[in-house]
Design goal:
CATH superfamily: Winged helix-like DNA-binding domain superfamily/Winged helix DNA-binding domain
Largest sheet: 3 strands, antiparallel
Number of helices: 4
Radius of gyration: 13 Å
Strand content: 15-25%
CATH architecture: Orthogonal Bundle
Length: 85
């Protein structure tokens, strides 16, 4: 079971790193579903928060009430990443 957890975290991090913009949890889940079967939003959210706790990604709750979480790699908004000076 531990290998599957590591695979979910590894693939999630790859999806976020390859993204051209911050992604919502549902968007990550949709992309991940094509790679790994039966990944629930709860399992994914747990892994996302672990990655955030390790400092590999950043996340923020947006919207009122339940809202939605968006996720990005920690240096996503640096000037070099966006191609601006």
């Amino acid at each position: 079971m531990r290998d599957r957890q590591d695979q979910i975290s590894k693939e999630t991090l790859k999806i976020i790193k390859d993204a051209k913009e911050p992604l919502e949890t549902k968007e990550i889940q949709k992309e991940l579903g094509g790679i790994i079967k039966d990944v629930t939003q709860t399992k994914l959210f747990y892994r996302l928060n672990n990655l955030r706790g390790e400092g590999l990604i950043k996340g923020k709750l947006v919207g009122a009430g339940k809202g939605a979480w968006i996720w990005w790699v920690k240096d996503f908004f640096s000037k070099d990443k966006r191609g601006r000076k």
